[in-house]
Every structure is written in C-alpha cells, then in structure tokens.
Amino acid sequence: MRSTYEFGILGPLLVRQSGTPVHVNAAKLRMLLASLLVEADRVVTVDTLVHRLWGDTPPLRARNTLQNYVLRLRRALGSPADTGPVRTHPRGYLIETDPQTLDVRRFTSLVRLGRTALEQNAAERAAALLRQALELWRGDPLCDLPGDAFPELRLTLQEQHLAALELRIDADLAAGRSADVLPELRALVEAHPLREHFWTQRMLALYRCERQSEALECYRTVTALLGEELGVTPGPALRDMHARVLAAAPDLGRSPGRTEAASSPNAPGRHVLPVETTGFIGREAQLAQVRALLSTARLVTLTGVGGVGKTRLALRSAAQLAASYADGVHLADLAALTSPDLLDRAVAEALGLRDQSARPPAEAIVDRLRDRQLLLLLDNCEHVAGAVAALVLRLLRAAPGLTVLATSRHRLGVPGEHILTVPCLTLPEPGAACDARLRQPPERSESVRLLVQRAAASAPAFGITPRNRAAVAQLCRRLDGIPLAIELAAVRLGAMTAEEMLERLDDRFRVLCLPGMPGTETRYQHTLRGVIDWSHTLCTPQERLLWARLSVFSGGFDLSAAEAVCAGEGVGREEILDLLAALVDKSLVAVDSTGPRARYSMLETIRQYGLERLGELSRHTGLRIRHSAHYRAMTLRAGAEWCGPHEVDWLLRLREELPNLRTALDFCATRPEHVGTAVAIAVDLARTRCWFFSSVLGEGRYWLERLLASPPALPPDLTAGALAMKVWIALCQGDNPAAETFLAECRTQAAGSDGPAVAPFTFIEGAHALLVDGTSESIPRLAAAREQFLRDGRHGDAHMATMMWAMAEAFLGDPVSARAAAREYTAEAEAGRAPWARTWACWCAGLVELRHGDPAASLAPLRDALARQSAFGDNWGPVWGVETLAWAVAETNRHTDAARLLGAAHRLRQDTGVALTGLRPFHDAHVAAERRVRTVLTAQEYAQARTYGAAENSVLFALRISAEPRTGAQAKTGATPPPRRHEQSPTGLAGPCVSSDTG
Predict the structure, then answer these.
(1) DSSP character for 301?
(2) How do 374-379 and 329-333 pair as beta strands?
(3) Buried b (16+ CB within 10 A) or exposed e, 947-961
(4) Beta strands 92-95 and 329-333: pairing type?
(5) Which residues does residue 601 pair with via DSSP β-bridges, in sequence order?
(6) Collapsing DSSP states into helix, strand and coil, what is residue 599?
(7) Is-contact 41 82, C-beta < 8 A?
(8) pTM of the model
(9) How far apart are the C-alpha atoms of 34 and 917, rounded to whole Å?
(10) pLDDT per residue as tens digits for the range 936-961
C-alpha cells in the first residue's frame, strides 16, 4: 500500500506518513523540505535551493551536498525516489502534494468556500468552514525555522490569517453570535490596534448587544489611536459604522440570535454543540482519521479508556464537519441515563422532537430522520451499549442520510461499525529533558503542552524550568498521557511541585482527586478513581477478577503468560482468551498483533487500579509466585536453546519481557525461599546475553550483586554460575577493580569444587587472563572450559567459551592457530544454525584477517557482522564492530575515515557505559590505531574528524565508510566521498560470512 503524506507549514514544520508523525530533525533537511513545500508541485531550481540552504557562502561541491541532503530527506520520509513525494527534475527538485495534503492549500480552499457561503447568506456554513480553516494554524508559519527564512511568505500568510479571522467573525455576526465574539474582538483590537476592521466588528457587536455607548467609545479610542500613531483619520468603513450607530440605523438591528435561530427543529444546518471552555491540544492525526472515516462510513465509534478524551475529540470533529450536513449536527449525551428504557426519549429530545402522540419514541425518531441529512453524535454509550446498538441499527436502515458518531468504552457491535481507538496524548521521549540528540524536547509533546496550558489557569506560578523539566516529562509519562489525569495533576500543581507529585504518584487515585469542586457532580465526581470505577462497574465478575490478576504483569504479556499465571480459582484456563477479548473491547487492555504472537498491555493507571483490587483479594501472593515461576521457566528454556536456531528470537523476546523479569526478580529477592529462583533467572539472562543485547549490562550486575550479597544455601553449580557471571559482567564493563574483587570470591568458592561447578570457574579465569592480563595463558584455559562445558552438556556455555577462545587466538596466538580457531568457531556456529553466533564467528574471522592477514580483506566480514547485528537490534555487538572497523580502516591508510570511525565507536561506548581501558587487548589495538592515525593527521584534523564521526549514526556511518572504494585522491587524503545515491542499508549488505540458512 502506498503511503499518504500530510505536510504543514502553518506552524512548526509538520510531516505525517499515513497519519503517523515523521520527525525531520536535521536543520538543513528541515530547511530543504520547507523550501520545497512553499513552492509545492513546482520545480525549485538547484541554485535556488543552494541559496536558501547556505545563503551567499555555499560550500565547495554544493550541488553534490544538496543531492546528499535530498537522499537523506527521502530516507527520513521513508520514501524511495521513484514513488515518494520528493521528485528529481532536470532543473532541480519538487515535492508533489494533493490539495488536501498541504495545510496551506486546505486553508486557502476553505477560506474561499467560506467567503462564497457568506456571500450567499449561508452564515452558519461560512462560520463552520472558516473555523475549520483557522484550526489548521498551529502557530506562526514555519516558526521552528530560522527567523530570516522566508520573510515575505511569513508576512503574506500572517496577513491571510488575519483576513480569514475577520471573515469568520463577519460570519459569526451574521449568524447572530454578537455576544460570543466580543471577548475575542477585545483581544484582537489590543493585539492589532491599527487594523480598522476589527474595530468596526467590535462596534457592531457592542451595538447589537445593546451597548451603544461602548460602541461609540470604541470609535473615539480608535480615532485617537490612528491620529497619534499614523496621523490619519479612520477609513470610510469605520466612519460609516460610527454614523450608523449614532443614527441607530435599522439595518444594524439585532440579528437573529442563536436561540431564535435554533428554535425550529426544521432549521437547516442546525447544530447545538457545547462551546469549548478550554483549549484543544493536539489530536491532528485523530481528527484527520475521524474525517476520513466519516467520509465513507455511516457509523464510527470512538473507543478508549476512560478519561482519554473521546468526548472532546468527537465534539471537535463534529464541529469541524457540521457544514457538511444539510441538517446539521445533533448531540445526545447519554451519561446521565440510568436505564436503557430512557434511551429513545433522550435521542428524541436531542433531535428537538416534540411528539405528543402515543406512539413509541423510536418510531417518531425514524419518521423525523427518514429524509434528513445529519450527523448524530451519541456520547457515553458504554452503559447502555446494547440498547444503543439496537436503536442505531434501526435508524441507519431507515434513514439513508443519517451518519452516527458514537463514543463508548467498548464497541457497539453493529454491522458496518468502524472503530477508532483514541490513543493517549503523545508523551515526551525518555531522557528528552536532558539529551539534546533525541527527536524533540518534552515541551513539544501533547501531554506536556496540555499540562502547561491547564496549569496556566489553575497554577499561574507554574512554568517549565531547567530544574523541573525532567520531572514534568516523567509525570506525564507516568500518567500515561491520559488527558483527565493530566488536567487533574495541573490543578494540583497549584499546591505542590511536579517533583513532589511524582513522589506521591503511587497513590495516584488519592492525589488526583479534587472533591468539592463546583459543577462537577457527574458520575466521575471529577476524580481519576471515579472514571476507572465506572469502567470496573461495567465489567462482569470474571472480567474484574482477570483485570486484577493481569495487573501482576509489567510492561505487557502474551496469551500463554495470562493462561499460566491467571487461570484457576474462578477463571478457567480455557476462558482466559474470551475474557481477554472482552477487556480489549472495553478498552481496558490493548492488543498488538503485529508480531509473531499477540501482545497485551494495560496503561499504568489501569494496572495500578487492578493492583489495588488485587490487594483486596486473598491468595494474591500465590499469583506472584506463579508469575515468577512462569518467567523462570521462560529463561530456563531460553538458556537451554541458546546457541541454536532460535537464539535471536529468544533475545528479542527476553528484551520484550524485561519488565516482567524485573518484577519477578524483585519479588523473589525479598523472600528467602524464592531467592534461588531469582538467581537462576539472573544467571540465565546473563548466559543468553540478554543483559548485553538489551544494553542493560549494569542492571544484570546489580541483580547478581544484590542476590548474592547474603544468599541462602544454593546448589553449587548455580552458585558457581552466578559468581562467574558477576565477574564476567564486570570484565566486559572494563571495571577491573570490581572484577578482581569478584574473582577472589570465585576462587574461594572454587576451592574443593567438582562436577558442573568447575567449568564456570575455569571459563572466568581464562576470560580474566585475556581481558585484564592480555596473556596467552588465556588460550588453554578457555579451551579447557570449552571441553568441560561440553562434557556437562551445556552447549550454550560451551559456545561462549569457544568464542572467547577464538578471540584469544586472534589477539594473542600465531597465524596458524588463530585461523584454525576461527574456522572451528565458524563451523560450530554453522552447525548450530545460530544466527547471533554466526555474526560473532564472522567478526572473529575478520579480526583474524586484520591481525594475521590482509587488513583490506578484513573489511568485508567485519562489515557483514556489524550489518547483521544491527539488523537483529543488537545493542552490544555494534560497539565492538564499529571499533574493529576503525582499526581495519586505519590499517588501509584511510586516516581521516579511521578517525571518524574512532569517534563513532567512542559514542557507542558512551551510550553503553563500557570502559575500554579495562579491556587489555581491545585497548592496545585502539591505542595502536589511534597512534597510526595521529602520525598523519594534525591534532586539529584528528579532533574534527573524530567529532564528525561521533555526531553521525554510528552503525550506518561505519557501514558506509568501510564499504567505500578508494580512489587515487582518497589515498592521499584518507577520506571517502559523499554518500552515493543508493546507499545500502544494514539489512541489504552481504559478505563472505552470509549463509543461505537464516536459522
């Protein structure tokens, strides 16, 4: 399916691909995209683009650099050159858009339609169209670009915005909304005091509200202002309005008011929707989805968890679409219904029916709607869903011009129903408050914007500062981006700081409770608990029980986990699937079916509520024991299948299950009788390299240290494995002092050990000799550990010993033994059809070639290993893959490229927290490569190249640099040319280590 794109310049630069935001972060790429969008569907010459990007000082080879930026822009948009929106032309480039995909074009079209409707005396339709146009504005045009970019365009668009605003107010005045526009006009004349039409409109609105003296005072004010500022008198329109107000001209008489205009149920275009009292934040993608669905479907149901903003989204969508329905929009709020029997009367009242006959209300509704074209908004349907479904089905069959937009916490189940699950507001990225490299600052997320806006009203002293930025971002994340929770938190910010609220958020249902507020006597009682209580009430007893039991999971779960942990005592194993489906339908559980197995999850707020209910149940400790046992069984199986065809699948699955594994570890760590289970989980996660693969190496060490601090009696082989893994992690971190301390514990434990407990100690002695001492003694020790593991039937551990033995031979052995070890390691990985092991065998082959053969020939296997590890999502292997490529490139005398790769590798080590100085052979090779590069480059050239590499995407940069062929010019400079037009991706590379068997 071809992607659809939406672009926006009426505010910060905006890109969406099939409704999903696309982040274009690089400043030059944003300027390039904006340059194409302001002249959409027209060719922008290369010279024009070069001038816009670099002004009067373009770089050398600016055209090639521009071509590179175009390629990067296409990648950022996720589109190839032949089908994407950015097209190449002999004279330059252009971006293709449709009339509805560029906001400035939609704005212009809607304003034109609104002006035409106003000229035809269709004031309501004109006002709706112009509101829709103005809602496209998200701020000043291209406000996130430099201030000197497109100055004339920005002024033109701002003028068009003001003109549209004037036109919309004209429409509102013509529709009789004089009192409604007065507050807005007061703000507008203050913001634009020299814009006479706003003064004219304000005088008319005041006069129609029977405030003639204030209207005349307006004229005196603007006359004095124009004289003082410009030395001119008011223009003809303003003078004419003044004269007519003085004369009380009959044509200025009060226009038909909203009540009068709406009094007749037959009035065309009638819609009575509540006026928004607070600002509307974000939801652009969902508004577009609702518009798209309602353009083809006759029944659309917005579902989602309580408090997520279904009603607000529905009301905003209905207001935007009101002009599209000849008989308008009608709202029926069903929240107050106490019985399904009252539904028909509530809908009849919403439609303005005054039927006094004895016939059933449903028949009167059908008669009224049979020939009408209108949008019926049914809000809060969940507690009368069955009755709503029956009525809606009857109405849709009888009234072909009827469209229904419903909100409910679960679907209605009517044939032809289209479901749109309303998501929570977008959240700030983890670490966004302190890492400038992330895509967007916290303030740009919808949840933080809502918090700041609502806090401005209830806590005027609150503001985002460098001190509280991280706390605000974390607060919004922990509230799941649920609008109701954020609004309640904003009120609390008047009495406490964001940091203090975070400390109390484990008791969120008490913290986010505001009793006694006037005007909040609804079923929610203006509390977060009230919203969730209502969802709980709508569940069956079995659904409530499963909800409570599912709260034991952290981060998500699959069906097998739910069956293993939650079945029993009132819920049969065979019933879990149907009950889960019911909770999904009620928007209490979310399901992701994009992977090989369905993944279920709950918002943290829903989970916390379930935990409270779980605490009220008896035997909940048994549930946590079953949870720990399930994940212990998972890690045991993963360890047994390590170094086999499914090892990458296990790595990905264990990384996904880390939240549940942490929960199991924490529970078992606090109960002496279950500490052994926790130790076994932590050891198997280290054995399968999950801690490494997922970039949480420090966490693995934390658990082993905590669990072994005062352990109960454990089986000797489990104790040996745990102690050895603790040393192993410290060694890989380069933390030699800790490794020495832990190794001493191992040696003490090893005294007198026999059987399966011996092999881990032998392995760790060999690893220590390699990584800390850098001596050839590591080779026989690791070979002996390998034989011991194989003797004990521990093939996964034997594989790791083989890997370290082959590595030791590559660093410290002679060419013959190093090549023999690499061949044996490769054969073992191939025999096991282990995809992750194959990448390391490939890396070892490249390392052997680098140190004992042709450095240029080592590039292909090293690059292939890096590409495949990156494709797996491995966060550990690429740290060493990029570093080793830097050594190889240095050996081929491409000194600038080598310095860049050293910078890229340094950044990866910073991200993972690895200290290279503690890893002797790696550190020595690094120092040798650096020394080789520095002998050719000046200190400034080396620093610039290293900084350049650290700023790039390390893996992609390393793959491109190492794949570039050398030319004569490059042999002199040691630098590669700009990226080629069709740059390979990690998954598209092939090398000598690629096997046809993918495992």
Answers:
(1) E
(2) parallel
(3) eebbebebbbbbbbb
(4) unpaired
(5) 590
(6) strand
(7) no
(8) 0.62
(9) 46
(10) 999 999 999 999 888 877 788 888 87
